[in-house]
Amino acid sequence: MERLDLSRLSVRELNQYLHHELPKNGVDEVEIVNPSGLHSIAAGLTVPVKIRVLGHAGYFLAGMNQRADVTVHGNVGWSVAENMMSGSVRVKGFASECAGASAHGGLLVVQGSASSRCGISMKGVDIVIGEDVGHMSAFMAQAGHLVVCGNAGASLGDSLYEAVLYVRGKIHSLGADAREEPMMEDDYRKVDELLRKAGIDYSSREFKRVASARSLYHWNAEAGQEY
Amino acid sequence: MNGKRTALEESALYNRHVLHYIHRAAEHGLYDIRGLGAKRAVPSFDDLVFLTASLSRYPLEGYREKCVTKTVLGTRFAKKPIELDIPITIAGMSFGALSANVKEALGRAASAMGTSTTTGDGGMTQEERSSSKTLVYQCLPSRYGFNPDDLRKADAIEVVVGQGAKPGGGGMLLGLKISERVAQMRTLPQGIDQRSACRHPDWVGPDDLTIKIAELREITDWQVPIYIKFGATRVRDDVKLAVKAGADVVVIDGMQGGTAATQQVFIEHAGIPTLPALRLAVEALDEMNVRGQVQLIISGGIRTGADVAKALAMGADAVSIGQSAMMALGCNSETYSKDGQQFDVSQEYEKLGTAPGFCHHCHTGLCPVGVTTQLPDLEQRLQPEWGARRLKNYLKTLNMELTTLARACGKSNVHHLEREDLVALTVEAAAMAKIPLAGTNWIPGESRT
């Protein structure tokens, strides 16, 4: 296990080490201390390393992550795990806006709440939020799953494509083209699987399913669309 | 009336074009979508001319003396700035809007001429990466197909805030162009009418952009230049914010810039022409004292070597071409060429409700000459080798025209062209470009000393 101190290293030095030295030296666990809200910590990782960040991080933590498992013992700023391809990012605290934005794969877990536009434009990632999500979450979400264990803010799933959303609490309102649908056995299995992976203990039976009504998939004046 | 018609008087306000628009809107309840750029006449580089050498300036010998065209972009922060042989680059156009064959042709021609080409909304295809010596990878609001592996393969990154044809708007790609491959690259269902976002999903505003750029630099180890591209609206403010956000290169796309598909109301009624946009951008860089440190690329209606020369004289470091590159590949031509034979496609234009020379139906995916299509039989009408040869010839011509004008102005380097080499032919162009009206020292809006 290697301990890296961001009060002594710059983020640039840290990331250069994680990108170039780490894959060579066989270290499979890294602890990052004194993150102090800095941005782009552990961005662009490509190796299957376990990273613990002890404290609060700023924007773009683990941005574009590939294969690494990153855990933050604190809160994170905007766009945690944006465009993640694989691996996992776990936030023990809360996440600010755009958590998991446009992420293609992997697992993002936020034990607390995530602010607005969580899962915006998501493209295959699985996201589990332990508490609430803010407004416009899963906006234009294309693929993957968003599990919200608390409440969802206004306009959930606006302009959804093929991503599927599961919400345990109240939904303030649904966005354009998003609709509530009956939970099927596959849905219960999926929610159970994601809750288990997230380490969060709820029953899938408490969740509602939201998916695209697909009425905006084709441009049609008769449908009263507002494109 | 005794069978006689009264004299026909067309309304200037409600002319046939406007009537057609109103009737169509009344029938369908939807706005028009189309491709390419603004068709209205606006002040342009055509309204400027060069004061080439005579007695007061010495020209260089046109056929013997060297005129340097080498262009370096991204010298501010990147470890590996881009070095191009000519100051004419190929603009971002998506695989999806264009066929894979066309993307390959663009890459081959650009590589042969020592310049760069650019990806587009939808990601990087293997064909364009392998055919492009220098490839700029766009980071767009939709992030379709955007991934870190391709990011690291890029020679530069262009963060697209907007484009001249639709500043403030997102793109549209109608269902016929969402083929199986395009859908897979964009993680979308095949055949849907695809919308692209107008804002980035993970940042909002210039302060966030500063942090976003830093993230992209972290992921790419500060190696490659980062461009910021936007459509020309509030150019002075936007250039300053882009520079403050950390851009190596600023790309301004004037309202004549093209698109694969967007609302006509955007194309004709949003943004400012390329001419004033360029002048405002140069002024902004001057005011920040970063000319030469941050490079400027201008696009939007660059068609000739004269346009390139005038853009450079006004202060651009390079230009970018999109529509004219497509036209070099045969866009709006009556025929396509295959195996040395010409095939007339006038009737196919007619089926689209248009004609060669007037077509802007890129959005339909039914391009008769195979440029803006995903249909296999149409795509085969443009073979990469043939297209690359055409575009290479066109780029070569532009470059020769550029150096011809530069030599005639006495410049041994095209980047030495200057505003003092230009005069304006119209009051409007003089005001927008802040270039004196020909035969006077008058620049409208500027007080005389």
Summarize the structure in words.
- The complex is a heterodimer of chains A (227) and B (449).
- The mean pLDDT of chain A is 95.
- The longest helix of chain A has 15 residues, at 11-25.
- Chain A has helices at 11-25, 185-198, and strands spanning 2-5, 29-33, 50-54, 69-73, 88-91, 107-110, 123-129, 143-148, 164-167, 178-181, 208-212.
- The termini of chain A are far apart.
- Chain A is α/β, with parallel strands linked by helices.
- Chain A has a domain at 94-216.
- An 11-stranded mixed sheet of chain A has the order 1-2-3-4-5-6-7-8-9-11-10, with helices on one face.
- With 449 residues, chain B is an alpha/beta fold.
- Chain B has one domain (45-433): TIM Barrel.
- Chain B contains 15 helices and 18 strands.
- Chain B has helices at 16-28, 100-112, 126-131, 148-153, 180-186, 205-219, 235-245, 264-269, 274-287, 305-314, 323-328, 346-351, 376-379, 384-408, 427-433; strands at 33-34, 48-50, 71-73, 82-84, 88-90, 116-118, 134-139, 156-160, 172-173, 194-195, 226-231, 249-253, 262-263, 295-299, 318-321, 335-338, 341-344, 422-424.
- Chain B has an 8-stranded parallel sheet. Chain B has a two-stranded antiparallel ribbon with strand order 1-13. A two-stranded antiparallel ribbon of chain B has the order 2-18.
- In chain B, α7 links the parallel β11 and β12 (249-253).
- In chain B, α2 (100-112) packs parallel to α14 (384-408), α7 crosses α9 and α10 (305-314) packs across α14.
- The mean pLDDT of chain B is 94.
- Classes of the chains: A alpha/beta (227), B alpha/beta (449).
- The A-B interface holds A 11-12, 15-16, 19-20, 39-40, 43-44, 46, 58-60, 63-64, 66, 78-79, 82-83, 85, 98, 101-102, 104, 117, 120-121, 123-124, 139-140, 142-143, 159, 161-162, 216-219, 221-222, 227 and B 28-30, 142-143, 146-148, 151, 174-175, 186-189, 192-193, 195, 197, 201-203, 208, 211-212, 214-215, 218-222.
